[in-house]
Amino acid sequence: MKVAKFGGSSVATADQFQKVKAIIDQDSQRQLVVVSAAGKYGPATQKLTDTLFLIADAMEAGRDVTQLFAQVTARLEAINQTLHLQVPLNKLMNTIRHQLTTHYSRDYLVSRGEFLTAHLMAAYLGYTFLDAADLFFFDDNGGIDEAKTMAAYRQLPNHHGLVIPGFYGRNRAGHVQLMPRGGSDISGAWLARLAQADLYENWTDVSGIKMADPRIIKDADSIDVMSYDELRELTYMGFSVFQEEAVQPVRECKIPTRILNTNAPQDPGTLIIHDDDPSDDPRIITGIAGRKHYLVITIRQYQLAVHLEVIQQALGVIAAHHLVVDYLPTGIDSFSLLIREPRRQVSVRELTTAIQAACHPDKLEVTENVALIAMVSRQLRKRPAIAGKVLAYLDDNLLNVQLVSQTNSDINLLIGVTDKDYDKAVRVIYSSIHQNFYRPAPYIEGIA
Ligand SMILES: Nc1ncnc2c1ncn2[C@@H]1O[C@H](COP(=O)(O)OP(=O)(O)O)[C@@H](O)[C@H]1O
Ligand SMILES: N[C@@H](CC(=O)OP(=O)(O)O)C(=O)O
Fold first, then answer.
1. For 121, 207, 237, 408, which has the most beta carbons within 10 A of its beta carbon?
2. How many A from CA of 213 to the centre of ligand 1?
């Protein structure tokens, strides 16, 4: 059995629906299907989810939303009519609007993109629609309540030929709750886990994961095979093709994932395998990912090892401001807090004043607008010299490296540059890998 998740681009238009049906019809193991809301592809230039967020903003501001709702209906009706489906969209829309006037909920409203798209897809494939609110249950921390979700899965009358909307579930209070953006990947991963699927197929608009963000490196190589360990590091640092929280449910159960292209289904895509499984990929570096807009606070404290309370106190301030520390490299007399996009919650001055007051360090230094780039590879464990070569190459290209850290996972080399240098640094690293490290599998022409 395979779970097939189709992203927004795969269900954006009637033409895309036809590609999905061809893929489903081609393999009888594709019995469990998860869909996102109609997204962007070709003539469709806006994600339905984004339109629904606009409606939510307008409703909350008391503005008229008739036009925006008409846009949503028209978009879905075009698919309904082109494919000669008989989904009662007007009736469904009226129920939704009625529900919103009596019990307004932003999450319920935005989740209707997936709900309505899944209704259309179920009708088109001849599969049964299953509401995600009757399958995925959240715990109080917003994670999936596995026991309750598994019980709901077991009670289903059948486990074949189902279409399930992604991106939402039901919370403890019984209300519809959204997952993070890109969350249909998470729904698909959980469904694969519930079904103990042989494969989780994630269908999108690229033929697998590229070694670097295709918006920066246009013709970046695709990754044929990678481990969940590597994927986790890369998604954490911004590989937006697969939602970060979708890794764990399948990784723990050793279910492989394949990232595939709905527009080129014959392409092999990227296979993601369990960390212990051997891979014969000859690549030295698996991928490069990064994020901009970090704030780096370096705190100097003589004999840090006997003053660990300084770290604890600084982290207390971070937690009190609900900030995220992505990395925390430490040295003998100093440590650094690598904080993601702090400006929205608190000013840098407020934050540093609070840290000074909480832990009275010897010295505190701040660097703003730092971009972090992660080079991820299982080979780094065995060949740490790779890091030195990449750094030398950055130096040759006059790129000012602000920090370097080989994180505990030891498959991730982290490099900090200024936001301004980010794109250039990614290009330099990518070309340095190509020139210095890419080693095709050995080829023996003959032995005499
Ligand atoms: N390293 C990468 N490899 C492939 N695609 C990437 C990478 N980083 C970012 N992307 C972007 O992710 C997009 C696919 O993810 P997403 O937009 O969520 O698709 P879907 O609508 O199918 O869920 C690609 O079109 C590409 O622009
Ligand atoms: N539609 C939601 C959930 C999702 O997973 O979408 P996509 O598969 O298009 O990334 C979003 O836009 O966030």
1. 121
2. 8
**CB contact set of 163 (below 8 Å; sequence gap of 6+):** 33, 34, 35, 118, 121, 122, 125, 127, 128, 129, 130
Ligand 1, closest atom to CA 209? Answer: 3
Taking the C-alpha atoms of residue 410 and residue 396, their distance in angstroms, rounded to an integer, is 25
Q: If you measure from the C-alpha of residue 46 to the centroid of ligand 2, how many angstroms do you get, rounded to a whole number?
A: 12
Task: Please choose, from the candidates 106, 108, 111, 188, the residue with its C-alpha nearest in 3D space to the C-alpha of residue 144.
Answer: 188
H or E element that contains 310: helix 309-320
Question: Is the C-beta atom of 17 inside 6 A of ligand 1?
Answer: no
CA distance 194 to 151: 10
Among all chains, which residue has been given the structure tokens 């001849």?
A: 126
**Complex confidence, ipTM:** 0.94
Q: For residue 111, give the H/E element and its range.
A: helix 106-125
**308 conformational bin, left if phi > 0, alpha if psi -120 to 50, beta if neither:** alpha
**Ligand 1 centre distance from Cα of residue 264 (Å):** 15
255 token code pair: 């279910």
3-state secondary structure 135-171: CCEECCCCCECHHHHHHHHHCCCCCCCEEEECCEEEC
Distances (CA, A) of 360 to 309, 311, 320, 364: 11, 11, 17, 9
Q: Which residues are annotated as a binding site for substrate?
A: 49, 114
Q: Is the CB of 182 under 6 A from ligand 1?
A: yes
For the chain, list the domains and their CATH numbers.
2-205 (3.40.1160.10), 287-433 (3.30.2130.10)
Contact between residue 14 and residue 80 where contact means Cβ atoms under 8 Å apart: no
Protein residue with least CA distance to atom 8, ligand 1: 213
- CA 207–ligand 1 middle distance (angstroms): 10
Q: How far apart are CA 49 and CA 167, in angstroms?
A: 10
